[in-house]
Amino acid sequence: MTEVSADLGTGRASVGAVLDFAWTAGEFTATEVMAATSLTRSTAIDAVDTLVSGQILRELPNARAAGAYRAGRPARRFALMPDLGVVVGIDAGDTHLAVTVADPLQTTLVQHRTDVDPEETPEERLAIILERLQDALSEAGRTRDDLLAICVGVAAPVTRDGISPPHPEGFWERTNPGLAAALRDWAPVVEIKNDALLAAVAEGAQGAAIGCRDYVALLAGERFGGGVVVDGHLLHGAHGGVGEGVVFDHIIGVGSAFGLGPALHHQLLAAVDTGEVDAGSPIGRLADAERIDPRLVLTLAAAGDADALLIAGQLGETVARIVGVLGSMYDPARVIICGAVAESIEPVLAAARAVLPSQLHLPAPELLASSLGAEVVSLGAVATARRAARERAVPLLAERRLARG
Question: What pLDDT, on a 0 to 100 scale, did the predictor assign at position 256?
Fold first, then answer.
């Protein structure tokens, strides 16, 4: 239950219960509060009036004024204030930055996404994140004073204090360049999270894991990383390292934490070198590119191109080994491939499903493609920021407003 200070007139429990109810109720009456919370009428009305005086709830025109009155005394109707503030979700990836400004309930106000240079220094990356955050707020017509909560997803393990441990090559420090400290004064609640963990939040809330208590959301674009849910609980670890992809450096047949894009490129180069794929074919010519968008090859595979199907099949064996490790470690019911690559990943998953049962002794998890696309981390970040606003920021706002009288 949302915690609200005992300084509030009707007490923490009753006001918190009403506030929890209001988040999902839309318009409601005191009678509906009573039915949902088991509060007495007088306690429910006192709690509602407390939140109205704190400008957290607003009283709506009664049924007579709204034209719906028939007989008897019209019930008072209430709803959350529409201008409590905004939340921000940020996806700070290695090669992209997405900033989303949303209201605390369901509406997205502004969404920006841009490419960033993976060679930037931590200082340069931090400056860009803060600049894009301010730009998005300005476009939404909001200021820092309107912020209730911020959640940032980064491609790094993150402690519960929002700090990433040192990386041998400085990668984690670059993707999380002191964000917890830099954003501390921007909002009442600031959370820095691993990006795969936020993908798992999004899949559980609105994706392929709805209703599932045991699953892994596997981000698989540039690097592998898993957000792990066991028995309905997100797993974190002492340093936020649960699901960290470095384990795949040590798996025969995988050999790297780099994701499906680099893995596909490696498979293609090897196939051209062995003559399995003609270097002059449409697929073979891609081998000389500095980077390959895996969706180009996978779309051709889905259309039946023989060379592309060969590469997709080999990549499927790699995915099966990865999922086999995850299945043995966490025993998930589902493994969901997430990120932009998911939209065209089915030829790879079909190949992986064929060999997956041989990769583990436990029953093989269901292997699925996410439907949330490139925005999966942003969706998880916004959902996490909304939850922080509901459970922490708005109760604090109520206390402050009531303390001012």
Answer: 59
Sheet hosting strand 225-230, strand order edge to edge: 233-234, 225-230, 215-219, 334-338, 366-369
CA distance 48 to 58: 9
Per-residue pLDDT tens for 204-214?
999 999 999 99
Of 315, 339, 316, 335, the C-alpha closest to 327 is: 335
Q: What is the pLDDT, as a whole number, of residue 261?
A: 81
DSSP H or E run through 192 = strand 189-194
What per-residue confidence (pLDDT) applies to 63?
56
Distance set, CA 342 to CA 3, 205, 295, 375 (Å): 39, 18, 9, 11
Query: Tokens representing 309?
Result: 């199907």
The DSSP line for 114-136 is: EE--TT--HHHHHHHHHHHHHHH
**Beta bridge partners of residue 145, listed in sequence order:** none
Q: What is the pLDDT of residues 116-135, one digit of tens each?
A: 998 999 999 999 999 999 99
Which helix (DSSP H) or strand (DSSP E) does residue 234 occupy? strand 233-234
User: Which pLDDT belongs to residue 405?
Assistant: 59
90 strand-pairing partners: 99, 152
**Structure-block tokens of residue 238:** 């002492």
Cα-Cα-Cα-Cα dihedral of 313, 318, 320, 322, to 10°? -160
Query: Hey, how many other C-beta atoms are within 10 angstroms of the C-beta on 180?
Result: 17
CA dist., res. 237 & res. 330, Å (int)? 14
Q: Which position has the higher pLDDT, 229 or 299? A: 229
Reduced to 3 states (helix: H, G, I; strand: E, B; else coil), residue 364 is coil
Cα atoms in the 13 Å half-sphere on the side-chain side of 193: 33
